[in-house]
Design brief:
Layout (H helix, E strand, L loop, with lengths): L1 H5 L4 H9 L8 H22 L3 H14 L4 H14 L2 H7 L5 H19 L3 H14 L17 H16 L7
Helix pairs in contact: 3-4, 3-5, 4-5, 4-8, 5-8
């Protein structure tokens, strides 16, 4: 696109020089997985924004086929879908009331949550099956991806985001 804007007579030659540059060869594998992964992750976010949760979950599943670390995006989109459908508020409201109605309320709320946003469990369960069958997340070199624990910064970041999301007023409350 850049070369086309410059009106160069050697557009094809310059593009081929860039494509066949030996300095870029080691990085081509990133392009083969990163671009489709990004496309399907963004597609799932767009479909989530349009409240097309089933198609969004399917796009999340496809994005997991390219990059396994997209499981974090799947979890985030599922939580956002639960918030958008009111499931999180309903789950919190279960604890207000008597112990006898707790079981009845929790079953009805869980059924509502699973029918509205439970399709995101399909990519999550698929990922867990992959991890179980593969005996880990990494394909091939297991030394390159080891779980070494939870660090304090991870906990702080999660608490910060939780407080940021749930203490600020939502647009529906205004």
């Amino acid at each position: 696109i850049y070369y086309k804007d410059q009106k160069s007579p050697f557009i094809l030659l310059q593009s081929l020089q860039l494509f066949f540059s030996p300095l870029l060869w080691p990085f081509y594998w990133i392009l083969y997985t990163d671009i489709p992964s990004l496309i399907f992750t963004l597609l799932s976010l767009i479909l989530f924004g349009k409240q097309r949760y089933t198609l969004s979950a399917f796009a999340c599943l496809i994005s997991l086929l390219f990059r396994q670390h997209n499981i974090f995006w799947v979890l985030l989109i599922w939580l956002m879908a639960m918030e958008q459908t009111g499931c999180i508020k309903n789950l919190i409201n279960i604890f207000h009331g008597s112990a006898q109605s707790f079981t009845r309320k929790s079953i009805s709320v869980m059924i509502k949550c699973m029918t509205s946003s439970g399709m995101y469990l399909i990519p999550i369960m698929s990922f867990l099956v992959f991890v179980y069958i593969n005996n880990g997340i990494a394909l091939g070199d297991r030394q390159s991806q080891q779980f070494s624990g939870i660090y304090p910064l991870q906990i702080f970041s999660c608490l910060f985001i939780f407080c940021l999301l749930y203490t600020s007023p939502s647009p529906r409350d205004r």
